[in-house]
Amino acid sequence: MQADQFLFPTDAGLYCPAGDFFIDPVRPVPRALITHGHGDHARAGHKAVMATARTLDIMAIRYGADFTAQRQIADGPVRVGGVTVSFHPAGHVLGSAQIRLACDGGPVIVVSGDYCRTPNPVCQPWEPVACDVFVTEATFGLPVFRHPPPAAETARLLSSMAEFPGRKHLVGAYALGKAQRVIALLRQAGYDAPIHLHGAMQRLTDYHVAQGIPLGDLRPATTPKEIEGQVVIAPPSAFASPWVQRFRDPVIAFASGWMAVRARARQRGVELPLVISDHVDWPQLTQTLQDLRPEEVWVTHGAEDAVIRWCDLNQLRARPLRLVGYEEEEE
């Protein structure tokens, strides 16, 4: 069986007819395999969902316990129809996984979802998985994206707090993964003061703590007078709401790989852009393709053309899938 007969894009997402399932579908389907809990990959309404135990828990936190009629924990290789399926760490957020598909007499395909090779204190590290076809994202798939070490960006945040001790530092971060990573990075750097959380962060952060991830002294961001520490972490959407007006002359920061694009930082009114990404940058993406050397590379979303061109220059067969709806998590 040819790879593009075994797995192919549809309006709902990647579909595998041999197993009769979709991967990260963008609309409700009978059976979905989910790589991780971000809102652009994990949606409610599927009849049956297979994912890691942590991703299933995260989906229940975000969408309610009845987000699907049937849950199946991805625990070791399992047969789904005529396909052997296994989940492997992606290094993106807690519970994130690459999905390996092996069809009898067919190719081995690894769908990476979103992945990152930089060590992350709040999730398992990315694991290389040998395959015939590697399906990669290209969120930061341009040579200009070369993310600095997270510790260096954390040091910039600490330096700003030392320079402006009277100003609260409001850090924009996605509620799943990035918020907890910023907290963990601050703790690793020796910052042990209270860190305050916008209410939208609380349940997911509590779940990380319950999973054994130490995040230190965390408190709600209620009124500015009750905030003892300098750091308040909130979802990006909060900075366009009246919530931010509670704070007098704050330093507005935002933790994202997109902060490498200064125009984006200016558009958001960000004073302190922190280039902290949970995705592969250009060197990591191309190094992954060199390490795996699959027979073929498929590119799901992002800067597909640049990655395809790099593959052509490096004697790797490649094709774009032109999937839509995966660029950023829904807040």
Describe the overall structure.
The protein folds into two domains: 3-144 and 279-320, Metallo-beta-lactamase, Chain A, CATH 3.60.15.10; 150-274, Rossmann fold (3-Layer(aba) Sandwich). Helix content is 23%, strand content 24%. It contains eight helices and 19 strands. It is of the alpha/beta class and 331 residues long. It has a seven-stranded mixed beta sheet, with helices on one face. The chain has a six-stranded mixed beta sheet with strand order 1-2-3-4-5-6. Strands 14-13-15-12-16-17 form a six-stranded parallel beta sheet, with helices on one face. A hairpin with a 7-residue loop joins β8 (83-89) and β9. The protein starts with a helix and ends in an 11-residue tail after the last strand. GO terms for molecular function: ligase activity; RNA endonuclease activity. Keywords: Ligase. It comes from Paracoccus contaminans. This is DNA ligase-associated DEXH box helicase.
List the SSEs and their pairings.
Blueprint lengths: L2 H4 L1 E3 L2 E4 L4 E3 L7 E3 L14 E4 L1 H11 L6 E4 L4 E3 L2 E7 L7 E7 L4 E4 L21 E6 L11 H14 L5 E4 L5 H11 L6 E3 L4 H9 L7 E3 L10 E4 L16 E5 L6 H6 L4 E3 L7 H11 L3 E7 L1 H10 L3 E4 L11
Parallel strand pairs: 3-4, 4-5, 5-6, 10-11, 11-18, 12-15, 12-16, 13-14, 13-15, 16-17, 18-19
Antiparallel strand pairs: 1-2, 2-3, 7-8, 8-9, 9-10
